[in-house]
Prior knowledge:
Layout: E1 52-65, E2 68-80, E3 85-93, H1 96-109, E4 112-113, E5 125-129, E6 132-138, E7 145-146, H2 149-158, E8 163-167, H3 173-185, H4 190-198
Parallel strand pairs: 7-8
Antiparallel strand pairs: 1-2, 2-3, 3-4, 5-6, 6-8
Amino acid sequence: MSTDTNTTSPETPTPAPTSAPANRPQRRDNARGPRRDNRNRDAAPSDGPTMIEKIVFINRCAKVVKGGRRFSFAALSVVGDGNGKIGVGYGKANEVPEAIRKSTAHANKHMVTVKIKGNTIPHEVFGEYDGGKVLLRPATTGTGLIAGGGVRAVLEAAGVKNVLTKSLGSKNHIAVVNATMQGLLKLRLAKDYKAALQS
């Protein structure tokens, strides 16, 4: 009568060999889930149109007090959706980021819609604000945005890609930006003129 010398229980599985060293923890993919800052998240359709934010100018003001100088900052910014909707904002604070945040929030609250024709403006227009005077002329495709400073920031945020401009007055950033805005608000399309004649 033979006796079985195998003492291994059939219920105990044999451990499988691992390729990773014993002292090195195995990597777990996506163990912590998605990032909290949404850096890897794609834009969802419900997020709305992507806004274009341009910082035109940051001014530093120094106030002399008993202990030395106290600085404050003012920011001028332009916000637009690239499709004719645009706003200008101005904000003041003791720190630059807070001044930019205030100016951007002010611009978002005061958005207006301007009439553009394709990627240019429908006709020549002249805008004035205080000492700022800006001339805007339509241009053919391929001309580009011939503008600088505050005028370029406003036109880029509005979605104008081909235009000829000339600043004829003050070089103050606030005056130039608002003169450009006044010029854009004067723009009218052909259907607007037809509707005015028929009424």
